[in-house]
Amino acid sequence: MRLARYEFEGRVRIGVVEGDCVVHLSDRIERLNGDMAHLIEHWADLRSQAEKLRGRADCRTGDVAFLAPVERPGKIWGIGLNYRDHIEESGSPVPEEQTWFVMANTTVAGPYQDIELPRVSKALDYEAELVFVVGKRIRYANAGDASDAIFGYCVGNDISVRDWQLRTGQFSIGKSFDTHAPYGPWIVTADEIDPLSLPIRSYVNDEVRQQSNTQHLLFTPAQQVEHLSKAMTLEPGDVFFTGTPGGVGGAMSPPQYLEVGDRVRVEIDGLGYIENTVAKG
Protein backbone atom coordinates (compact mmCIF):
# COMPACT_ATOMS: atom_id res chain seq x y z
CA MET A 1 0.00 0.00 0.00
CA ARG A 2 1.21 3.52 -0.79
CA LEU A 3 0.52 5.83 2.12
CA ALA A 4 0.99 9.56 1.60
CA ARG A 5 0.79 12.79 3.53
CA TYR A 6 -0.35 15.73 1.44
CA GLU A 7 -2.18 19.04 1.35
CA PHE A 8 -5.58 19.14 -0.30
CA GLU A 9 -8.03 22.04 -0.22
CA GLY A 10 -6.03 23.83 2.46
CA ARG A 11 -5.73 20.86 4.84
CA VAL A 12 -3.01 18.32 5.54
CA ARG A 13 -4.33 14.79 5.15
CA ILE A 14 -3.23 11.16 5.03
CA GLY A 15 -4.34 8.95 2.17
CA VAL A 16 -3.74 5.94 -0.02
CA VAL A 17 -2.33 6.45 -3.52
CA GLU A 18 -3.56 4.00 -6.15
CA GLY A 19 -2.35 4.80 -9.65
CA ASP A 20 -3.21 8.44 -10.20
CA CYS A 21 -6.02 8.36 -7.61
CA VAL A 22 -5.90 9.38 -3.95
CA VAL A 23 -8.21 7.97 -1.28
CA HIS A 24 -8.53 10.12 1.84
CA LEU A 25 -8.05 8.26 5.13
CA SER A 26 -8.17 11.39 7.26
CA ASP A 27 -11.63 12.05 8.76
CA ARG A 28 -12.62 8.45 8.02
CA ILE A 29 -10.20 7.02 10.60
CA GLU A 30 -10.60 8.37 14.11
CA ARG A 31 -7.86 10.73 15.39
CA LEU A 32 -5.81 10.33 12.22
CA ASN A 33 -6.06 13.86 10.79
CA GLY A 34 -2.67 14.50 9.12
CA ASP A 35 -0.51 12.47 11.50
CA MET A 36 1.35 9.70 9.68
CA ALA A 37 3.22 8.67 12.82
CA HIS A 38 -0.14 7.90 14.49
CA LEU A 39 -1.17 5.70 11.57
CA ILE A 40 2.15 3.86 11.65
CA GLU A 41 2.05 3.30 15.41
CA HIS A 42 -1.50 1.91 15.30
CA TRP A 43 -1.22 0.16 11.91
CA ALA A 44 -2.04 -3.27 13.31
CA ASP A 45 -5.46 -1.94 14.39
CA LEU A 46 -6.06 0.54 11.56
CA ARG A 47 -4.91 -1.40 8.53
CA SER A 48 -8.23 -3.17 8.04
CA GLN A 49 -10.02 0.21 7.97
CA ALA A 50 -7.57 1.50 5.38
CA GLU A 51 -8.01 -1.64 3.26
CA LYS A 52 -11.79 -1.22 3.22
CA LEU A 53 -11.44 2.31 1.86
CA ARG A 54 -9.31 1.31 -1.12
CA GLY A 55 -10.88 1.59 -4.53
CA ARG A 56 -12.42 5.01 -3.96
CA ALA A 57 -11.13 8.05 -5.81
CA ASP A 58 -11.52 11.22 -3.77
CA CYS A 59 -9.14 13.17 -6.00
CA ARG A 60 -6.22 12.80 -8.40
CA THR A 61 -2.54 12.91 -7.54
CA GLY A 62 -2.27 16.12 -9.55
CA ASP A 63 -4.76 17.77 -7.20
CA VAL A 64 -2.62 17.37 -4.08
CA ALA A 65 0.72 18.73 -2.86
CA PHE A 66 2.70 15.81 -1.49
CA LEU A 67 4.55 16.43 1.77
CA ALA A 68 7.23 14.53 3.65
CA PRO A 69 5.48 11.35 4.87
CA VAL A 70 6.46 11.93 8.53
CA GLU A 71 6.71 15.65 9.23
CA ARG A 72 9.02 15.61 12.26
CA PRO A 73 10.43 12.12 12.88
CA GLY A 74 11.61 11.42 16.40
CA LYS A 75 14.91 10.27 14.90
CA ILE A 76 16.58 10.73 11.53
CA TRP A 77 19.86 8.91 10.98
CA GLY A 78 22.00 8.24 7.94
CA ILE A 79 24.58 5.56 7.28
CA GLY A 80 27.78 6.36 5.41
CA LEU A 81 29.89 4.25 3.06
CA ASN A 82 27.29 1.58 2.38
CA TYR A 83 27.78 0.90 -1.36
CA ARG A 84 31.10 -0.49 -2.54
CA ASP A 85 31.38 1.85 -5.55
CA HIS A 86 30.85 4.88 -3.29
CA ILE A 87 33.46 3.54 -0.85
CA GLU A 88 35.91 3.22 -3.74
CA GLU A 89 35.31 6.74 -5.05
CA SER A 90 35.72 8.17 -1.55
CA GLY A 91 39.11 6.49 -1.18
CA SER A 92 38.05 4.87 2.09
CA PRO A 93 38.58 1.28 3.23
CA VAL A 94 35.55 -0.99 3.33
CA PRO A 95 34.13 -0.48 6.83
CA GLU A 96 33.84 -3.45 9.14
CA GLU A 97 31.34 -1.59 11.30
CA GLN A 98 28.33 0.51 10.34
CA THR A 99 29.16 4.22 10.18
CA TRP A 100 26.23 6.38 11.33
CA PHE A 101 25.52 10.08 11.73
CA VAL A 102 22.57 11.97 13.20
CA MET A 103 20.50 14.31 11.03
CA ALA A 104 18.45 17.08 12.64
CA ASN A 105 14.71 16.70 12.10
CA THR A 106 14.63 20.23 10.64
CA THR A 107 16.42 18.78 7.60
CA VAL A 108 13.12 17.20 6.49
CA ALA A 109 11.75 18.49 3.20
CA GLY A 110 8.91 17.42 0.97
CA PRO A 111 9.47 15.28 -2.13
CA TYR A 112 9.08 18.25 -4.50
CA GLN A 113 10.09 21.11 -2.20
CA ASP A 114 13.02 23.43 -2.95
CA ILE A 115 16.31 22.64 -1.23
CA GLU A 116 18.56 25.43 -0.03
CA LEU A 117 22.05 26.34 -1.18
CA PRO A 118 23.27 27.66 2.19
CA ARG A 119 24.86 31.08 2.49
CA VAL A 120 27.93 29.56 4.13
CA SER A 121 28.94 27.02 1.47
CA LYS A 122 29.08 26.29 -2.24
CA ALA A 123 29.90 22.58 -1.78
CA LEU A 124 26.32 21.30 -2.02
CA ASP A 125 26.04 17.66 -3.10
CA TYR A 126 23.34 15.03 -3.74
CA GLU A 127 23.05 11.44 -2.53
CA ALA A 128 20.31 9.18 -3.89
CA GLU A 129 19.14 6.88 -1.10
CA LEU A 130 16.63 4.23 -0.15
CA VAL A 131 14.86 5.36 3.03
CA PHE A 132 13.06 3.12 5.51
CA VAL A 133 10.54 4.04 8.18
CA VAL A 134 10.29 2.15 11.46
CA GLY A 135 6.90 0.67 12.31
CA LYS A 136 7.35 -0.79 15.79
CA ARG A 137 8.96 0.17 19.05
CA ILE A 138 11.96 -2.13 19.32
CA ARG A 139 15.18 -2.61 21.29
CA TYR A 140 17.80 -5.39 21.01
CA ALA A 141 16.28 -6.74 17.81
CA ASN A 142 17.39 -10.06 16.39
CA ALA A 143 17.53 -10.53 12.61
CA GLY A 144 13.88 -11.61 12.27
CA ASP A 145 12.56 -8.90 14.58
CA ALA A 146 14.59 -6.27 12.74
CA SER A 147 13.01 -7.04 9.39
CA ASP A 148 9.51 -7.07 10.89
CA ALA A 149 10.12 -3.68 12.53
CA ILE A 150 10.38 -1.89 9.17
CA PHE A 151 7.06 -0.34 8.21
CA GLY A 152 7.92 0.72 4.70
CA TYR A 153 10.24 2.41 2.22
CA CYS A 154 10.59 5.77 0.47
CA VAL A 155 12.84 7.58 -1.97
CA GLY A 156 15.31 9.99 -0.36
CA ASN A 157 18.12 12.41 -1.12
CA ASP A 158 20.73 12.95 1.59
CA ILE A 159 21.78 16.44 0.53
CA SER A 160 25.27 17.07 1.91
CA VAL A 161 27.30 20.21 2.53
CA ARG A 162 30.70 18.66 1.86
CA ASP A 163 33.03 21.26 3.36
CA TRP A 164 31.06 21.28 6.62
CA GLN A 165 30.80 17.49 6.56
CA LEU A 166 34.51 16.85 6.05
CA ARG A 167 36.16 19.59 8.08
CA THR A 168 36.03 17.35 11.18
CA GLY A 169 35.57 13.65 11.88
CA GLN A 170 31.91 14.26 12.77
CA PHE A 171 29.52 14.42 9.80
CA SER A 172 26.33 15.50 11.54
CA ILE A 173 26.42 19.28 11.01
CA GLY A 174 27.22 18.90 7.32
CA LYS A 175 24.24 16.53 7.05
CA SER A 176 21.82 18.66 9.07
CA PHE A 177 21.24 21.89 7.13
CA ASP A 178 17.60 22.90 6.75
CA THR A 179 15.71 21.26 3.82
CA HIS A 180 18.53 18.80 3.14
CA ALA A 181 16.59 15.57 3.70
CA PRO A 182 13.81 15.49 1.11
CA TYR A 183 12.01 12.16 0.97
CA GLY A 184 8.76 10.59 -0.14
CA PRO A 185 6.64 10.92 -2.15
CA TRP A 186 4.86 8.27 -0.07
CA ILE A 187 5.65 5.21 2.05
CA VAL A 188 5.33 1.88 0.26
CA THR A 189 4.57 -0.68 2.95
CA ALA A 190 7.21 -3.34 3.47
CA ASP A 191 4.95 -6.22 2.41
CA GLU A 192 4.97 -4.90 -1.17
CA ILE A 193 8.71 -4.34 -1.65
CA ASP A 194 11.91 -6.38 -1.80
CA PRO A 195 14.34 -3.74 -0.51
CA LEU A 196 17.37 -5.63 -1.83
CA SER A 197 16.42 -5.63 -5.51
CA LEU A 198 15.59 -2.03 -6.40
CA PRO A 199 17.26 -0.06 -9.22
CA ILE A 200 18.19 3.42 -7.97
CA ARG A 201 19.18 6.48 -10.02
CA SER A 202 19.85 10.19 -9.62
CA TYR A 203 19.81 12.96 -12.21
CA VAL A 204 20.98 16.56 -12.16
CA ASN A 205 19.22 18.61 -14.82
CA ASP A 206 18.29 15.35 -16.62
CA GLU A 207 21.90 14.08 -16.67
CA VAL A 208 22.32 10.66 -15.06
CA ARG A 209 24.75 10.93 -12.15
CA GLN A 210 24.12 7.75 -10.13
CA GLN A 211 22.87 4.36 -11.29
CA SER A 212 22.95 1.26 -9.13
CA ASN A 213 20.80 -1.28 -7.33
CA THR A 214 20.03 -1.77 -3.64
CA GLN A 215 21.36 -5.33 -3.96
CA HIS A 216 24.79 -3.70 -3.60
CA LEU A 217 24.11 -2.38 -0.10
CA LEU A 218 26.91 -3.42 2.24
CA PHE A 219 24.62 -3.46 5.31
CA THR A 220 20.95 -4.22 4.65
CA PRO A 221 18.07 -2.27 6.23
CA ALA A 222 17.37 -5.20 8.59
CA GLN A 223 21.02 -5.29 9.65
CA GLN A 224 20.85 -1.57 10.25
CA VAL A 225 17.84 -1.95 12.54
CA GLU A 226 19.49 -4.81 14.38
CA HIS A 227 22.65 -2.75 14.92
CA LEU A 228 21.04 0.52 15.96
CA SER A 229 18.57 -1.14 18.31
CA LYS A 230 21.50 -2.29 20.43
CA ALA A 231 22.10 1.34 21.32
CA MET A 232 18.66 2.96 21.31
CA THR A 233 14.96 2.24 21.24
CA LEU A 234 13.64 2.62 17.71
CA GLU A 235 10.11 3.99 17.54
CA PRO A 236 7.27 4.19 15.00
CA GLY A 237 7.92 6.97 12.51
CA ASP A 238 11.71 7.06 12.89
CA VAL A 239 13.38 7.61 9.50
CA PHE A 240 16.69 6.15 8.28
CA PHE A 241 18.69 6.90 5.13
CA THR A 242 20.48 3.73 4.01
CA GLY A 243 23.48 5.03 2.04
CA THR A 244 24.26 6.21 -1.47
CA PRO A 245 25.90 4.57 -4.49
CA GLY A 246 28.83 5.99 -6.42
CA GLY A 247 28.52 9.04 -8.65
CA VAL A 248 28.24 11.90 -6.17
CA GLY A 249 29.34 15.32 -7.36
CA GLY A 250 32.08 15.72 -4.78
CA ALA A 251 33.94 12.66 -6.11
CA MET A 252 34.14 13.99 -9.67
CA SER A 253 37.26 15.65 -11.05
CA PRO A 254 36.75 18.54 -10.76
CA PRO A 255 33.89 18.32 -8.22
CA GLN A 256 30.45 19.05 -9.67
CA TYR A 257 28.52 20.73 -6.87
CA LEU A 258 24.92 21.88 -7.09
CA GLU A 259 24.05 25.47 -7.98
CA VAL A 260 20.92 27.59 -7.69
CA GLY A 261 18.40 26.45 -10.26
CA ASP A 262 19.68 22.88 -10.56
CA ARG A 263 17.02 20.16 -10.52
CA VAL A 264 17.86 16.95 -8.71
CA ARG A 265 15.72 13.89 -9.30
CA VAL A 266 16.03 10.57 -7.48
CA GLU A 267 14.18 7.48 -8.71
CA ILE A 268 13.83 4.04 -7.17
CA ASP A 269 11.88 1.47 -9.13
CA GLY A 270 8.74 0.43 -7.29
CA LEU A 271 8.85 3.45 -4.97
CA GLY A 272 8.51 6.42 -7.32
CA TYR A 273 10.64 9.54 -7.51
CA ILE A 274 11.35 12.84 -5.80
CA GLU A 275 12.57 15.99 -7.55
CA ASN A 276 13.91 19.10 -5.86
CA THR A 277 15.19 22.42 -7.19
CA VAL A 278 18.12 24.22 -5.57
CA ALA A 279 17.16 27.66 -4.28
CA LYS A 280 19.14 30.40 -2.60
CA GLY A 281 19.25 29.89 1.18
For the record, the count of structural domains works out to 2
Q: Give the overall average pLDDT.
A: 96
Radius of gyration: 18 Å
- The string of secondary-structure elements, in order, is EEEHHEEEHEEEEEHEEHEEEHEEE
CATH fold title of the largest domain: Fumarylacetoacetate hydrolase, domain 2
- The top-level CATH class of the largest domain is Alpha Beta
CATH superfamily of the largest domain: Fumarylacetoacetase-like, C-terminal domain
Count of separate DSSP helical elements:
6
Family: Belongs to the FAH family.
Keywords: Metal-binding
Domain Fumarylacetoacetase-like C-terminal: 75-278
InterPro entries: FAH, Fumarylacetoacetase-like_C, Fumarylacetoacetase_C_sf
Features of this protein?
281 residues; 2 domains; 12-stranded mixed sheet; 19 strands; 34% strand; globular; metal ion binding; metal-binding
Task: Describe this entry's structure for a reader.
The protein folds into two domains: 2-66, no CATH class; 76-280, Alpha-Beta Complex (Fumarylacetoacetate hydrolase, domain 2). It is built from six helices and 19 strands. It has helices at residues 36-41, 43-53, 84-90, 143-148, 162-166, 221-228, and strands spanning 2-8, 11-18, 21-24, 59-60, 65-66, 76-80, 99-102, 108-109, 115-117, 124-125, 128-134, 150-157, 160-161, 181-189, 199-204, 207-213, 239-241, 263-268, 272-280. Strands 1, 2, 3, 4, 5, 6, 7, 8, 11, 12, 14 and 17 form a twelve-stranded mixed sheet that branches. A five-stranded mixed sheet has the order 9-19-18-15-16, with no helix packed on it. The chain is globular and about 55 Å long. The chain starts with a strand and ends with a strand.
